[in-house]
Amino acid sequence: MAFKINGLISSANGQASRAKQQRELKKLDSVADNDSDDVRMDMLEPEMKVRQEWDSKVQFLLAIVGYAVGLGNVWRFPYLCQQNGGGAFLIPYFIMLVLEGIPIFYMELGIGQRLRKGSVQVWTEIHPFLGGIGIASVVVGIFVALYYNVIITWCLFYLFHSFTRQLPWMECPTEGPNNTVVEECELSSATAYFWYRNALDISPAIDQPNGIKWSMFGCLVLAWTVMFFCLMRGIKSSGKVVYVTATFPYVVLIIFCGRAVTLEGAGAGLQHMFTPDLQKLQDPNVWLDAATQIFYSLGLAFGSIIAFASYNPPNSNCKRDALTVSLINSATSIFASVVVFSILGFKATQLHHTCIDQSVTKIMAALPDLNITPNITETRLSNILLEYNETLRHLNLTKCNMKDELNSVSIAGVACVRIH
Questions:
Q1: pTM, two decimal places
Q2: Distances 44 to 25, 41, 55 between C-alpha atoms, Å
Q3: What is the dihedral of CA 10, 15, 19, 21, to 10 degrees?
């Protein structure tokens, strides 16, 4: 996202300027011990400086994949799948990918690579009246960078707190001489309490601030500092960083996937994901969500793709690049959904077991002569409730249905699931 700023660096690429550059470079070749590209560029006049290029094709692809793959793939896509019919959402998603995603991605790569300029200058060169599109994309990019750095700040905060013998969000804190569990934590969960009280230190209302949380402020400063050092030399520095930033998320996803698919209930979660609810396709909002997701996930119309492509050689195969990155991005979304829905199935299974245990405990108290065990199945529990409906009606027992649990578990809440 920060490449938006780098993509706004101007370059001169007219035919006359290029000829003059060649003459100047020939003169520089005769200068002893000064044959590096950096020295050459410093001796050229400003209007004759050639635009930087990626060190290799792999570096460009890693940069563009690292830009496209993000929260839109890992969090937003699984959320939309859950809300819009599971596997049925894949139908409008791939249709929109073909109709709008790949063509617009290809167009932005093409104009950036051909004109070799940033977003503002590209649209201005196409037509002076279109310069506002480039300016708007830069402004949007700044806003996105602001909130993305806040998310990085939260990640750093949790990273630093993980270097303890016992993770602080594993158990509820205690207070008082009797070591009583904090009531707020007991009513919610240890993970939720740590998030709202330790990490955010959330206040009752926006007009009642609790002041600056200095530990979080320090993490925010660190996040901006890291971004500065990654971008301070343009693609010469950021091009090296992408070897880590673009590959590390896949390493983490693979590790999570190996753990998630072995959890109890993972199969139920995956079945819930890939079982299509075709009736949802009649809802126009599902198609709107699919189209919006394509724009958000591929990072279209932010100006960054134009900036990335402007550092490519003019003869690079941008059609192949557009297809490659688009397919990698979509495959990542599905792969991340497998991880998320496996954990969602685990969470739903735990809630389902808890529901059955609570119901069985109440039934055993009301019908002590009934021979049942805590580990009964959902079908067995339903039969008991039907058979003794009049006797158990006053208990107001909750119906324990696995499908309802899968629909009720929030994708956002998966982040607070404890896996032992």
A1: 0.78
A2: 8, 5, 21
A3: 0
Q: How far is CA 30 from CA 20, 22, 146, 378, in A?
A: 17, 13, 47, 85
Q: Which of 414, 303, 396, 405 is nearest to 353 (CA)?
A: 405
Q: Give the C-alpha separation, 4 to 238, whole Å.
A: 12
Cα distance between residue 354 and residue 405, in whole Å: 11
Q: What is the DSSP code (8-state) at residue 48?
A: G
DSSP state of 182: P
Low pLDDT (below 70) residues in the chain: 1-49, 374, 412-420
DSSP character at residue 86: G
Separation CA 286–CA 273 (nearest Å): 15
Give, as one character, the DSSP assignment of residue 415: G
CA 373 to chain centre: 43
pLDDT digits (tens, 9 = 90+) for 70-111: 888 988 999 999 889 888 999 999 999 999 999 999 999 999
pLDDT value, residue 1? 42
- Output the CA–CA distances (angstroms, integers) from residue 113 to 59, 101, 201, 244, 313, in the order listed: 15, 18, 47, 25, 7
Taken as a whole, the chain contains a residue count of 420
Asked whether 269 and 341 are in contact (CB, 8 A), the reply is yes
pLDDT score for 393: 72
State residue 247's pLDDT score: 93
Q: What gap in Å lies between CA 100 and CA 274, rounded to an integer? A: 24
pLDDT of residue 39: 40
End-to-end CA distance of the chain: 35
Q: Tokens for 283?
A: 């809802």
